[in-house]
Amino acid sequence: MNTSDDEAIAAAAETKKKTPKAAAAKGKATGKGKAAAGPKTSAKESSLLKQKSPAEFFAENKNIAGFDNPGKSLYTTLRELVENALDSAESISELPEIEITIEEITKTKFNTMIGLVDRQRVDEALYDDFESEKAREKRLAKEARFQESQAKNAALGKKVKDAPSVRGKGRGEAAFFKVTCKDNGRGMPHDDIPNMLGRVLSGTKYGLRQTRGKFGLGAKMALIWSKMSTGLPIEIKSSMKGQNYTSFCRLDIDIHKNIPHVHLHEKRENKTHWHGAEIEVIIEGNWTTHRSKILHYMRQMAVITPYAQFLFKFLSDAADKNLTIKFTRRTDVMPPVPLQTKHHPSAVDLLLIKRLVAETTKQNLLQFLQHEFVNISKPHAERLIGEMGPDFSQKMAVKSLTSQQLVRIHQLFRQAKFDDPSGNCLSPAGEYNLRLGIIKELHPDMVATHASSPQVFEGHPFIVEAGISIGGKDVKQGLNIFRFANRIPLLFEQGADVITRTAAKRISWSSYKINQQQDKIGVFVSIVSTKIPFKGTGKEYIGDDITEISSAVKP
Ligand SMILES: Nc1ncnc2c1ncn2[C@@H]1O[C@H](COP(=O)(O)OP(=O)(O)OP(=O)(O)O)[C@@H](O)[C@H]1O
């Protein structure tokens, strides 16, 4: 015992003798109160710890899932529904037939739907778009000046600018849309519908397989957004092949508990023997700001999926806004259904090894290594076990492995050499389809395509397919970059994406006798993998920081 300990004990004994109250206070401060019951917690000190459900988290951070604002939310809702529809039809090798309708709902119609009486404005000055007499005069004078300068510019042959738009300060009046997506896919089992669409982070696409969906989030985000912006539930109709009934379900989500709140769930007659799903959601959106993104998305989807048929409709009370576009099927050749694969030993972390041990049906370590991972043959597994050390044996029960032994296996997996995973489980669009898609949607003067052999990053196989086109319809001068990941068009965050950066900065177009500024160049790059390293859950771009991918994208 050193001097300072001695001193502290002596001082404490002294305090105890002198003032029992002061000693108690000291005990509280040092956390050494009554030995058995522990220090009492006053109401003021009660724990501040709170839990949040995944649904609450995503409702509060909806931007990370692509629901940044009403316009983007309309775009992302459509996209999530279309991608689910395609995944579903392709999973049963059915040529996809997908109908998408966006119906504009006026405020009066919306209010009638929810039983709210429409009210006219009474006190105009209360509103954000109210313009005082003075402000009106000022605006009109500004507009007149602008028109004068435009007239002068036009007379001098100079470029004429668009008139600046006049907007209120705030968000203005909300616009509502009913988004419906109907497919001819697998449908959903009746009893699973509430959890599939009303519980965040639940889905059927979590295995190691190339799919458009991945997180078990997209459709639920559309529902959360509808709950946040209109308070209306989602409606689902679904029927599986051979079922003589259609499931109908109307539900919303209990955000706090992250559980579905079912309003109606029943079986109805399926006279037409239809199979597939039809999902309908009513949300706030903005068609004006995101019309062009939505149409680009549909067109790009038609490029990468020429074997699908899409019927896109925009319906409005203003007849001149109505739109119907049919993207026709050009081929019956579908890429093969992507296969579920096992994990590559170099791509697993400790947590995943523990999960695989907990879930495996294999009894011993030898069988476990051989059957739960790709590229470990029996002789290879025997050698690996030998290398693990004397505590390990081929016959040892895999469920009896200690935490330390699992760490040893993980360490060995990181250091040992394994053959690369094969790309057999992947389903690229195929050069034929990519070429066809480009010709069908762009009508270029020239197209060239190329597909790479499978490559690997972090134990995941990936394939890059690319196409270049020159000329065509609705193609602007310069680079027109079309990016696809697991056959999803990526339209946002273009600047940071590996494909854009490669096309714009790392390719010497002049060496191919292509003028980067003047020619109408279409660049199409499609990456498929069991793991697309998206930045964020919004699936909007692939970063430029994975060497294997960036060098594979550059020809
Ligand atoms: N049109 C559909 N047809 C059949 N099943 C569907 C359909 N839409 C959704 N599902 C089922 O509901 C599940 C949840 O869909 P959700 O969009 O929430 O997530 P996901 O597609 O699995 O992943 P992600 O969040 O990456 O899109 C899907 O995994 C699928 O099983």
Shape: globular
- CATH topology tier name of the largest domain: Heat Shock Protein 90
Intertermini distance: 72 Å
Output the structural class. Answer: alpha+beta
Query: Strand-and-helix sequence, N→C?
Result: HHHHEHHEHHEEEEHEEHHHHHEEEEEHEH
Measured as a percent range, the helix fraction is: 25-40%
Give the name of the CATH superfamily of the largest domain: Histidine kinase-like ATPase, C-terminal domain
Question: What count of domains describes the coordinates?
Answer: 3
Residue windows where pLDDT falls under 50 for at least 5 positions:
1-36
Strand order of the largest sheet: 5-4-3-6-2-1-7-8
Radius of gyration: 31 Å
Q: Which hetero ligands occur in this complex?
A: adenosine-5'-triphosphate
Strand composition percent = 15-25%
Largest sheet, in brief, is: 8 strands, mixed
CATH class (first level) name of the largest domain: Alpha Beta
CATH architecture of the largest domain: 2-Layer Sandwich
**Overall pLDDT, averaged?**
88
Structural write-up:
- Belongs to the TOP6B family.
- Its EC number is 5.6.2.2.
- It catalyses: ATP-dependent breakage, passage and rejoining of double-stranded DNA.
- Keywords: ATP-binding, DNA-binding, Isomerase, Nucleotide-binding, Nucleus, Topoisomerase.
- There is one protein chain.
- This protein has three domains: 56-111 and 174-327, Heat Shock Protein 90 (2-Layer Sandwich); 345-415, Helicase, Ruva Protein, domain 3, CATH 1.10.8; 431-553, Ribosomal Protein S5, domain 2, CATH 3.30.230.10.
- The model is unreliable at 1-36 (pLDDT under 50).
- It is built from 16 helices and 14 strands.
- Strand 4 (245-254) and strand 5 (259-269) form a beta hairpin.
- The radius of gyration is 31 Å and the shape is globular.
- The chain has an eight-stranded mixed sheet.
- With 555 residues, it is of the alpha+beta class.
- It binds adenosine-5'-triphosphate.
- Adenosine-5'-triphosphate (ATP) binds at residues 80, 84-85, 88, 183, 185-188, 196, 203-205, 213-220, 277.
